[in-house]
Amino acid sequence: MEQIGLASRASLQRLHFEASPEAAVAKADFVQENGPERLDIKRDLFRRLDQVTPGHALIATSSSNHYCQRVSGRLPPPP
Questions:
Q1: pTM here?
Q2: CB proximity list for 28: less than 8 A, separation 6 or greater
């Protein structure tokens, strides 16, 4: 990070890393998924994220090969 520089007003003290996607999104309001373009991987990731994100959280995908319904279609509807 220090080699490529930080955006203005950015702080290394506010940056932290998590070992798992679940830990990273446990308190998130919005999650942007950027996994490989494999439907099996995206579905598994959505399932894992859906289990741990708050009920109000939005989970988005940046897939260019799969419709959102194909990625998230097996998840239960939101409460």
A1: 0.63
A2: 53, 54, 57
